[in-house]
Every structure is written in structure tokens, then in C-alpha cells.
């Protein structure tokens, strides 16, 4: 295994567990519009795209109203649902110590992403943070990864860059940005993602990733 020149990560489901809070937030919006609540599986299926891209398809001309309700709820509540995944901070710290640049690229709205990183005190390990709105398009486009890499003067076509994530959205974005797609499972299996996207590496969790890099 060649040591990467940089490792960029997805956020939700990759380094932190915010799924319960995000599901509550989106169902809060659905309650406002008297729509049936999403189940966990439905939420996973629907949220392949960021809210700014998905909501116009769901709420049509009332999409901006829906986004405002979502942001208001998240602004007041999302931090209390923030739970780091096991060894996530250790991973970031060791990568930073090893001199491997780290970036975060998420479909979470940019200001919420940066607030969560600041709340956890992880900014010291991270070279660039890119949430929804950072680039013209969100994942599964590779635009936000490319723009984030550009912000730290890394060109994926000339470098070995890993993009680590837990969903199909991440695998598609990695491929589009000319990065190695790395799937992290955190107790899931996802054989369909492995078969469909053939990620370069599959890790069980953050410790497994560190072990592979011998850090």
C-alpha cells in the first residue's frame, strides 16, 4: 500500500454519528408540511444528495421555506446529537502528526460543518473544510473535493489522494474527482457498494484504516 499524499474524509457516518439528529431534523420539516416521516432506511435512500439539491424536488416552490425550517431546527439542536465515531479523533491526530494533509468534504451545510468541527476541537488537524455550498455543486459531484484540494494546492491527477466515505455518494464523488475511493463500514456490510463501485480499499473502522497505514 502506497502512503497517500492526502486523505480527505466525508463527515456524517464516516467520522461522526449525526444520523439520529439529522433524521429528526428532516422529519421536523416533513411534519410542518404534513408529510409522512422518513424511516432510517428511507432517509439513507433520499439523502444521496444535499438538502439544497434534494429539497426543490420534494417541496417544489416551497423549497426555500423548507430549507429555512431545516436550518432553524439544526441551528438550535444539531450539536446535541453530535457523537464522534470510535478512534476518529485519533485517526485525524495521527495523520496530522505524520504530515498527511487532511480535509473534510460533506454535504452538510458549510456553516454547520465548521461549527461541529470547532465544537469538537478538531480544526487543528484539518487543512480544509468543505460543506454544502462550498462549491457550485455538492457530492456526488467531485466539484467540492476538487475545490477543497485546490485550496491546499493539491492536484489529484498529480497526487495520490484518498477520499474516505461510507455511502454511494462518496464513492461517486471520489471517482469524479480522480481520487481513490475508500469505503469505511462502521459495522455495516454494503456488499452492493463494493460490487458496484470497487473501492480501492475497504476498512471496517478508523482503527482498521490506521493499521493499514501503519500509523
Structural commentary:
- The chain folds into two domains: 6-17 and 83-213, Rossmann fold, CATH 3.40.50; 19-81, DNA polymerase, domain 1, CATH 1.10.150.
- 46% of the residues lie in helices and 16% in strands.
- The chain is built from ten helices and eight strands.
- It is globular and about 50 Å long.
Task: Please outline what is shown here.
The chain is built from ten helices and eight strands. With 215 residues, it is α/β, with parallel strands linked by helices. The chain has two domains: 6-17 and 83-213, HAD superfamily/HAD-like (Rossmann fold); 19-81, Orthogonal Bundle (DNA polymerase, domain 1).
Largest sheet: 6 strands, parallel
How many H/I helical runs? 10
Apparent shape: globular
Helix content: 40-55%
* Total E-strand runs: 8
Fraction in beta strands: 15-25%
Radius of gyration: 17 Å
CATH second-level architecture of the largest domain: 3-Layer(aba) Sandwich
The H-and-E topology, N to C, reads as: EEHHHHEHEHEHEHEHEH
Structural class based on helices, strands and sheet pairing: alpha/beta
Largest sheet strand order: 5-4-1-6-7-8
Mean of pLDDT? 93
CATH topology of the largest domain: Rossmann fold
Distance N to C terminus:
13 Å
Would you identify the CATH H-level superfamily of the largest domain?
Answer: HAD superfamily/HAD-like
* Unreliable residue stretches: none
CATH C-level name of the largest domain = Alpha Beta
Number of domains: 2
Amino acid at each position: 500500500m502506497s502512503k497517500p499524499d492526502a486523505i480527505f474524509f466525508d463527515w456524517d457516518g464516516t467520522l461522526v454519528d449525526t444520523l439520529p439528529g439529522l433524521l429528526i431534523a428532516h422529519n421536523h420539516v416533513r411534519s410542518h408540511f404534513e408529510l409522512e416521516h422518513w424511516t432510517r432506511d428511507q432517509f439513507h435512500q433520499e439523502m444521496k444528495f444535499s438538502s439544497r439539491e434534494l429539497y426543490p424536488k420534494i417541496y417544489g416552490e416551497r423549497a426555500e421555506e423548507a430549507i429555512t425550517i431545516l436550518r432553524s431546527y439544526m441551528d438550535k439542536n444539531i450539536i446535541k446529537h453530535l457523537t464522534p465515531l470510535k478512534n476518529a479523533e485519533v485517526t485525524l491526530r495521527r495523520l496530522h502528526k505524520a504530515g498527511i494533509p487532511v480535509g473534510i468534504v460533506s454535504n452538510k451545510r458549510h456553516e454547520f460543518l465548521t461549527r461541529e468541527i470547532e465544537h469538537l476541537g478538531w480544526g487543528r488537524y484539518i487543512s480544509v473544510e468543505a460543506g454544502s455550498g462550498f462549491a457550485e455543486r455538492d457530492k456526488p459531484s467531485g466539484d467540492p473535493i476538487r475545490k477543497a484540494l485546490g485550496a491546499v494546492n493539491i492536484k489529484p491527477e498529480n497526487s495520490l489522494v484518498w477520499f474516505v466515505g461510507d455511502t454511494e455518494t462518496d464513492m461517486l464523488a471520489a471517482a469524479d474527482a480522480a481520487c481513490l475511493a475508500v469505503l469505511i463500514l462502521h459495522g455495516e456490510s454494503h456488499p452492493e457498494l463494493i460490487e458496484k463501485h470497487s473501492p480501492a480499499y475497504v476498512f471496517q473502522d478508523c482503527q482498521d484504516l490506521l493499521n493499514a497505514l501503519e500509523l
